[in-house]
């Protein structure tokens, strides 16, 4: 191999090595940009997830509070219904007693008793 052929091969190798090095540098820069974009996107995603988690927690808390109030009101309603049932039973007794008195009075009237 002549010195000229040797020099051309070396120049070829050096040129391709320079292109390879430039390509690697471009890839490194693109990778850096991609990482920065990825980090920014990840930060946005984390922010969105955090906000969603907080909203969900707030909604669950509000729901729990409403359910507790509903349970309290239900307990009050049940207590009032029990009270009304007791009053109704007392009213039934009083009405029965009144009906008995009225029936006696009617029977006495039929039998000629005053």
Folded structure, characterized:
With 114 residues, the chain is mainly α. The protein contains one helix and no strands. The longest helix is centred in the middle third of the chain and has 108 residues, at 3-110. The radius of gyration is 48 Å and the shape is rod-shaped.
Give the amount of beta strand, in percent.
Answer: under 5%
* Number of DSSP strand runs: 0
Which structural class fits the helix and strand makeup? mainly alpha
Helix content: over 70%
Overall pLDDT level = 94
Low-confidence stretches: none
Distance between the termini: 155 Å
Form type: rod-shaped
Question: What is the chains' assembly state?
Answer: single chain
H/E series, N to C?
H
Task: Please outline the major beta sheet.
Answer: none
Number of helices: 1
Q: Radius of gyration in whole Å, from Cα?
A: 48 Å
Topology:
Elements lengths: L2 H108 L4
Short description:
The chain has about 110 residues and is mainly α. About 95% of the residues lie in helices and about 0% in strands.
Main features:
114 residues; mainly alpha
């Amino acid at each position: 191999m002549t010195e000229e052929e040797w020099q051309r091969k070396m120049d070829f190798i050096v040129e391709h090595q320079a292109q390879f090095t430039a390509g690697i540098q471009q890839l490194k820069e693109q990778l850096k940009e991609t990482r920065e974009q990825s980090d920014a996107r990840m930060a946005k995603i984390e922010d969105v997830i955090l906000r969603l988690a907080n909203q969900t927690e707030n909604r669950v808390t509000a729901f729990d509070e409403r359910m507790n109030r509903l349970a309290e009101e239900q307990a009050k309603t049940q207590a009032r219904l029990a009270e009304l049932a007791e009053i109704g039973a007392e009213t039934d007794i009083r009405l029965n007693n009144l009906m008995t008195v009225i029936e006696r009075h009617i029977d006495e009237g039929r039998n000629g008793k005053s």
